Write the structure tokens for this entry.
Amino acid sequence: QVQLVESGGGLVQPGGSLRLSCAASGRIFSIDNMAWYRQAPGKQREWVATITGGGRPDYTDSVKGRFTISRDNAKNTVYLQMNSLRPEDTGNYYCNAHIRQVTMQAGDYWGQGTQVSVSS
């Protein structure tokens, strides 16, 4: 019913840029925090960035100054602009959102993941 649909992943060269999008759909009343996580093969999923419902961003240290998280509340969409990409940024990127449905039931939802590969 409630779904997060991601797009924008791909293969880029080191130093390149990529913009990820994740749109929520369903019987949504409101969305609080939205976030991005990533996971490389054989590694734990790690938090990348969060943006609050009021638009306040926060980032893990390794992406500060390079990544920008933003949101468009009218579109129920969160974005991740990734610049100066490094090979260690490679991984499957997942969006996460805390969503309240029109029934007033609330919970965390995850996107399906989109692959980002940074390689020469």
Summary: The longest strand covers residues 28-39. The chain has a mean pLDDT of 97.
